[in-house]
Amino acid sequence: xxxxQIKDRSESDFKxxxxxxxxxxxxxxxxxxxxxxxxxxxKLSCSDQxxxxxxxxxxxxxxxxxxxxxxxxxxxxxxxIQRVENRLIQCRQFRLPSKRELLESQTNIQGVIxxxxxxxxxxxxxxxSTLQRQEKKHTQQAQLIINQHSLQIIATAFSSGSKHDFQxxxxxxxxxxxxxxxxxxxxxQGLSNLPAxxxxxxxxxKHRPLSRQEKATNQHLARGRIHIEHVIEKLxxxxxxxxxxxxxxxxxxxxxxxxxxxxxxxxKLKS
Length: 271
Hints:
The chain is of the alpha/beta class. The protein has ten helices and five strands, in the order ααααααβαββαββαα. The longest helix has 24 residues, at 212-235. The two termini are 32 Å apart. The relative contact order is 0.13.
């Protein structure tokens, strides 16, 4: 499938097919143009290269099958996807905001929501080194911090799935101003010890059930935290973020941040 075949489709069909809106696609396209044409000319145009990368994120088919659809080799698909991702991440438009906004006194951020999403990965190969270490890392997780009101993604952090949510938050070294309230789930029990104003649901114990007021408070907090679940749902429209991850793990954070920045751009264009 080529870009010329789908460029005249409706807005809803274009987004359903590629995962992004047509106006966002057109804003992404100029970042791929190179001022110098060195080496062999590419088999695919810049629009087709971008479309192929989006289709790879959207469907997460193997690069062999993607290459068959575009009549190129598997190695060409791999090089093209990496080139497109590197070009996009170098553009400031497709980067996440700085974490320093959470510490600025003049910031417009009044509240943030923190949550973690988990994704399965390929199991480690049974080599002598992995058997000796007894590695059991079959998932990886990504932490998101979003603006409670605008729903913009502010910061992310990544780790293996065995790390606790609050430990991931501490390792990310994300500092939040005392003026900003922070909503989190019960996995962030130590968050109250940090300077930020944190709100977490109360947990019942074996000998102490929750009171009616505490249950009402938990429901109120759940209605506030549900927004970050909706944001995660929109990111996972791209199958590369929800299916079993097969690529190198060091490229996962780059891909996740790119998709998060595209989500922020769509959010900005809607407003």
